[in-house]
């Protein structure tokens, strides 16, 4: 259930506090980690309340739900990030309504997004989703596929490749949480060494954002701790 709108303000403050504490603790520059507020399964009013505190970037996982919400909030200047499983029949909506896609893991989908991006919107900002946890989580490309996918995606005219994203299998304990994020950062650094100009590491959620900041996250995607539990 969505928290009442006043408590969203308090929760946002608390999450921002956690981010700045983690930045200081892990010697990251203040302000180097961006909060993406994940509003999937929460109503437009909850997003509006969050926007009232200055939050501008929101993440959604289901294209149909998001398109309705984005239209209802068109009077606000918000940035929308698609973070959910991408399907061929949803790429048109995603290309038309979102500013970013974090969950790109196949060239076929990348080509569709680039072809379907409306002229005049500017390139869609994309991250490649990497599967760093082995077979536990099926989404994301495999590490050995990454260099070729990055090369092909970076040549598509209406996409701008910004970085990498991962959703690790759940693990308990700070060191265990850091491990998959370290793998993502190493893959990111490897791509940069081979000439890709990347600036985004999208990793960390409500339960593990500190571990992600420790390993270099530039965007953390937080839903539950901002908006409350989802149905
Ligand atoms: C739902 C979701 C989140 C937010 O997860 P919380 O645990 O609620 O913070 C982050 N990233 C992705 C890809 C998600 O689907």
Classify the beta-strand content into a percent band: 15-25%
Main sheet overview: 8 strands, parallel
Flag low-confidence runs: none
Output the strand order for the largest sheet: 7-6-5-4-3-2-1-8
Give the helix level as a range of percent: 40-55%
Number of strands: 8
Task: Name the average pLDDT.
Answer: 96
Helix count, DSSP H or I runs of 4 or more residues: 9
Instruction: Please state the CA-atom Rg, rounded to the nearest Å.
Output: 17 Å
The ordered string of helix (H) and strand (E) elements is HEHEHEHEHEHEHEHEH
Descriptive keywords:
single chain, 231 residues, alpha/beta, eight-stranded parallel sheet, 9 helices, 8 strands, globular, binds pyridoxal-5'-phosphate
Describe the protein's architecture and organization.
It is a single chain. The protein is of the alpha/beta class and 231 residues long. The chain contains 9 helices and 8 strands. It has an 8-stranded parallel sheet with strand order 7-6-5-4-3-2-1-8. Helix 1 crosses helix 2 and helix 4 crosses helix 5. The radius of gyration is 17 Å and the shape is globular. The mean pLDDT is 96.
